[in-house]
Design brief:
Blueprint (H helix, E strand, L loop, with lengths): L1 E5 L5 H11 L2 E4 H7 L6 H9 L12 H10 L1 H28 L4 E4 L3 H4 L8 E5 L2 H12 L3 H9 L4 H7 L2 E4 L4 H16 L1
Parallel strand pairs: 1-3, 1-4, 2-3, 4-5
Helix pairs in contact: 1-10, 3-5, 4-5, 7-8
């Protein structure tokens, strides 16, 4: 399994989208993280126990409120990660084993790949890189949040520069989407020749 990571708003999803268009199978850790806390699952029950204020009347998690809490309190963010990460890892491992057993080339889009230490079992790793000011501006625009809020979210992750130094491949996403996709296409061609 090949890991795709980067920072928030660095363009991981754009790279994953391009790989899917080329025929790759990309497992999305963020999507799995949402699925493992759907109402009345084990993950949801644990979130409800430790973050009761984010459970809405219909049982759904108020994700905006949860994000506000965890990005302002590192201790509570760590607790949420302790709930979600093992559930996500289990799904990634079982899904990829089944797909790879059928001869498929599998990618995993994992925002916190290095932070969780998952580079020990997901290897090689491709990092999608953007300059810090590009990342900040993209996140503010995408999430409609202030520079302060965006900075809090970005600082909760390992700096992109550090991720890039640890990666086997770095995809520069500072320019146009076409230029990013050109890099992805070249890497895909190397894998599939």
């Amino acid at each position: 399994m090949i890991g795709i990571t980067g920072g928030i708003a660095s363009g991981k999803s754009s790279v994953a989208e391009r790989l899917r268009a080329l025929g790759a199978i990309v497992l999305d850790a963020d999507l799995i993280a949402r699925e493992v806390v759907e109402p009345h699952t084990l993950g949801w029950a644990q979130v409800k126990e430790f973050f009761p204020e984010v459970i809405q009347e219909n049982g759904a998690i108020d994700r905006r409120e949860l994000a506000r809490i965890i990005f302002s309190d590192p201790r509570r963010r760590k607790r949420l990660e302790e709930i979600i990460h093992p559930l996500v890892r289990f799904r990634l491992e079982t899904d990829s084993a089944q797909l790879e057993g059928n001869g498929k080339l599998v990618f995993a889009e994992v925002p916190l790949l290095y932070e969780t230490g998952w580079d020990e079992w997901i290897n090689p790793v491709w990092v999608v890189y953007v300059r810090p000011e590009v990342q900040l501006n993209r996140l503010m625009a995408r999430a409609q949040i202030s520079a302060h809020e965006a900075s809090q979210m970005i600082s909760s992750q390992m700096p992109l520069e550090e991720k890039a130094t640890r990666a086997q491949q770095v995809i520069d996403n500072n320019q146009t989407l076409a230029e990013t996709w050109s890099q992805v296409d070249a890497l895909w061609k190397e894998l599939t020749l």
